[in-house]
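Why does residue order matter? Because the sequence determines the fold. Keep that principle in mind as you read this record.
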Amino acid sequence: MSVKEQIGSVVDKWFLYEPLIFNVYCTHKLEHNSDMSCSFRTGRRRIEYNPELLKDKSTEEIEQGLKNEVTRILLKHPYQRMPQNPNRSALTTASDVTINEHCYPDKNLKDAAYYNLENGLSYEEYYRKLRYICPDFNAMQENGDGKIQLEYKAAAEASELWDEDEEMADKVNLQIQKAQKTNQWGSVSGNFQETIMASIKIPMDYRRILSQFRASIISQRRKLTRMKTNRRYGFEFMGSQFEPKTHLLVAVDVSGSIDSDDLMHFFSIINRFFSYGVEVINVLAFDTEIKQEFELKKASKKIRITGRGGTDFQCVVDYYEAHPEFQGMIIFTDGYANVPKITKAKQMLWILTSKQEYDNAIQWIRDLRFGKATWIPSLKSS
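Structure:
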């Protein structure tokens, strides 16, 4: 049989005996790719296979490789937010270790012990450690051990298509929920089921919180005026128009406890505000005092930040209260500092670096006037 026919026989078997794996497999398009260095890879809503690398493999070996790719999809590894400048060799390796540790053993996938790592970590935690262990293939020199280079090239290419795709993640989650509701798990073990279910626990939707905050500060631009007709009731009633600018103040905790990757991810999210009516973002970088002030008028990929001391929120709160031109302030922090004194009722959104930091800080934030909070899933959190 050809490799394509072998894959077809595997999928036929899944149709009969593995409803969850089959249904998730069907969310993707199967394509052959003889140019890649890995046997299988997943991403951008397709599963690719290299027939040249698989032609001497048994059907059982092909099934295991294909199952590993479907498992990655079940865990949403190819569709999570990517870290800034990811080490793609480490991404694939972290996924392999997670599958081996939490889902099922596979002799072809390395486990945590191989890298002298502890068991039971999340995929994100494994990546944080492995990015310092696995060479970044894109940064490797041409000379060196050819076998090692080939191994990491294959690992890097295996995650080359990975990129955030909430719609696909939702489709996969629907299949998981269907399996749970009907108890149609096939041969998926209890531990594997728990790992899958943990992957669909939806954290606080920080996008929704940010959207609401953005809408609230932009709405402050609208003012009543008789210079513009009310569309429904005419000149007898006041219409409204937007004032020319919305100013947003963003205070960024640059103390030593904040990870650089988290900072870059935060700015990538804030950059989206420019697409929704915010013309200017003023940034304060602070630790125990304000270290930098700068203005953003367009999305920026590279932002140089200085600081790295302790943390004191009062300096940025005082600045915000002293500048009435700002309609709102967002503070990005891990929350480890004394509670500031708030004297004015101005809109303020606290964004914490992880769920753990959010849980630690939420009570005192709720006690503040106009204090709201959310958290961004980061490489620190599972």
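The chain is about 40% helix and 20% strand.
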